[in-house]
Amino acid sequence: MTEPHAHYVGLMSGTSMDAVDGVLVSFFPDRVHLTCTHSMPYPAELREGLLRLVNNQGTPEDLGTADQWVGEVFAQCTNELIAASGIDRKHIAAIGSHGQTLRHHPGGPHPFSLQIGDPNVIAERTGLTTVADFRRRDMAAGGQGAPLVPAFHQWLFQTTAETRAIVNIGGIANITVLPQAPQDTVLGFDTGPGNGLMDAWCQQHWQQPFDEDGRHARAGTLLPQLLHALLSDPYFNAPPPKSTGKEYFNLQWLNQRAPGLHQANPEDIQRTLLELTVASIAKAITDDESIGGVYICGGGARNTMLMKQLTHQLANYRLCSTQDIGLAPEWVEAAAFAWLAMRSLQQAAGNLPTVTGARGPRILGAIYAGASTLSIR
């Protein structure tokens, strides 16, 4: 094996806000080599504060505190990752930090996307060049700023053997369609709620951050009328480019679409929310007759009930994990931001305008120099 030129760190914390995922990777022309991985849960006090901010409960001081604290956690995750890897820092070119999304608002007269986790803190605590703030340049160019991982999916997973769908099931679910013909257009968009609504309902009714293996959903019964009411939301039939977040698909949205839920069996609601995720993902796939293999990544891949129902809905497709095509499902997004950091240092575009709707390719991310790159003249 030829030695790679450099290693990169990728850091990701999704809309579930449960932990920071870190990877140490190196990139070859046709593959990614995963050297080491590390996941660090947020301190309970920080997570509670982040959830309050997402729910519009907090002051500017709370926001500033959370920004610095998330940066500290990201830096600590990086330092522990590097220590576990045994790799010398001088061989690490950069960190790619997605940050923690608090609000994603791509519509209206003043679209924005807000990720916190101060990259100055990360660069200072690790001594490594840090690339962050990936979404806003795409939005400045008229794009949605999301999803950004399809460019990485195209680089790593596209093949002339079949048209592939890569489905990431995080707090929000998204899909990338990689055509068999390399000259054809790559498509991608957020399909709707992934784990986010299920997590919120689980926290509210059982004081658990997520429904492990879909146990509560498995104990419930699908409510067809409720599912129909939820799927009637215009988002599901809106054409791409489109992206969304927990500021849209949340418990307030659920109560507005279906008042009177307090009278229902909580397990039945959980089952119906699971089927909502399944149905919205399945619709995105069955709308494209060219798709052959469907490859799942993200935290939802660990929910056995969700995967069982998705397999049932997509019985005519070959449903697999991204592990089968080169990268374990739990590390795809973190690896994507390591790759986007590399693209930024190379002064190469990181977005796909056909996915985000931007006016053209753009170099994504702001660069915060590490200590090893500085010199005194």
Architecture overview:
Strands 1, 2, 3, 4, 5, 6 and 12 form a seven-stranded mixed β-sheet that branches. The protein has a five-stranded mixed β-sheet with strand order 9-8-7-10-11, sandwiched between helices. The mean pLDDT is 95. It folds into two domains: 7-145 and 332-373, Nucleotidyltransferase, domain 5, CATH 3.30.420.40; 150-330, ATPase, nucleotide binding domain (Nucleotidyltransferase, domain 5, 2-Layer Sandwich). The chain has 13 helices and twelve strands. The protein has helices at 44-54, 60-85, 119-126, 135-140, 150-157, 196-206, 215-218, 224-231, 251-257, 266-286, 304-313, 332-345, 353-356; strands at 7-13, 19-28, 31-41, 92-105, 112-116, 130-132, 164-169, 172-178, 187-193, 293-297, 318-321, 366-368. A hairpin with a 6-residue loop joins strand 4 and strand 5. The radius of gyration is 20 Å and the shape is globular. The protein is an alpha/beta fold. Helix content is 37%, strand content 22%. Helix 2 (60-85) packs parallel to helix 3.
Question: Which key features would you list for this structure?
Answer:
single chain; 377 residues; alpha/beta; Nucleotidyltransferase, domain 5; 2 domains; 7-stranded mixed beta sheet; 5-stranded mixed beta sheet
Mean pLDDT: 95
In angstroms, what separates the terminal alpha carbons? 39 Å
Shape: globular
Segments where pLDDT lies below 50 for 5+ residues? none
CATH fold-level assignment of the largest domain: Nucleotidyltransferase, domain 5
Count of the separate structural domains: 2
Number of strands: 12
Helix tally? 13
Into which percent range does the helicity of residues fall? 25-40%
What share of the residues does DSSP label as strand, in percent? 15-25%
Q: Would you tell me the structural class of the helices and strands?
A: alpha/beta
